[in-house]
Amino acid sequence: MSKHDEARRAFLVGAAVGAGAVAGTALMPEAYAKTRDPHERAKTPAASHSNMSGGHGTFLNDDDSLTITAFAERLMPGAPGKPGARDAGVLNYIDLALTGAYADERDFYRRGLAALDAYCRKALNAPFRRLSAAQQDQVITALEQGKATEFTWPTAQAFFNTVRAHTMEGMFADPVYGGNKDFAGWRLVSFPGAQPLFTPSDMQSGKSFTREPTIGLQAQAQRPARRK
After folding, report:
1. 169 and 161 in contact (C-beta within 8 Å)?
2. What gap in Å lies between CA 48 and CA 76, rounded to an integer?
3. What local confidence, expressed as pLDDT, does residue 38 receive?
4. Which residue range forms the structural domain that includes residue 206?
5. Nearest to 87 by CA among 216, 213, 180
6. In this structure, is the dihedral angle defined by the CA atoms of residues 92, 36, 164 and 179, taken in order, positive or negative?
7. Is 228 within a domain?
8. How far apart are CA 218 and CA 155, in angstroms?
9. Which stretches of the chain score pLDDT less than 50?
10. I want to staple 143 with a disulfide (CB 3.0 to 4.6 A). Which of 103, 156, 183, 198 is the partner?
């Protein structure tokens, strides 16, 4: 992993911890939080893409899937022993969200992805998904700085900010929403999930909580309800 990738990972992980993203609820789609009961949300199965490398999902087609996978991976690159966006299933999270909580952003993504490829073809003679990692970073920087042409609505910066926010959600929200596969994001920041009990020593410790297992909403929902 390059120093550039390490710096990007460190920034996003730090932002996730600082924003309380690891709690799993702060970053989940608001529509889920507002309209569905937590136990019902946890019973909803998360569909999956074959291996985050393409294939039709619930909304994104093959090319769009490859583009989002590549974009998210450059935002949160993986490394040996350190999961990235691909490992965490960020594509699956975004794809599912665009058929549910973020359905109103479908046109945003359609137009943004089309503008992204138009810019890449004009500037680098290839769509984003076929560029080298260095070229993809160059494009992402242009988006972030609002210097990428071919964008009208959404603007280049708006598209960058949205995909980055959704990548963060896919990395660190509860796995029940389709991302954070195998608790990859939570393990990365040493977040134990929705543990049923913390001991007094746990609460007083200044060290990372590492006791297994990591628990998400799915496991909580499968527990029998307490009798009143």
Report:
1. no
2. 19
3. 39
4. 3-221
5. 180
6. negative
7. no
8. 37
9. 9, 17-28, 31-55
10. 156
> pLDDT by residue (tens digit) across 33-76?
443 443 443 344 444 444 444 445 789 999 999 999 999 999 99
User: Residue 110 CA to chain centroid, in angstroms?
Assistant: 18
Residue 207: its pLDDT value, please?
Answer: 72
In a domain, 99, yes or no: yes
CB 22 within 8 A of CB 179: no
Q: Give domain status of residue 227, yes or no.
A: no
Report pLDDT for 31: 44
Give the chain's domain count: 1
Q: What pLDDT is stored for residue 139 in this prediction?
A: 98
> Does the reported pTM lie above 0.85?
no
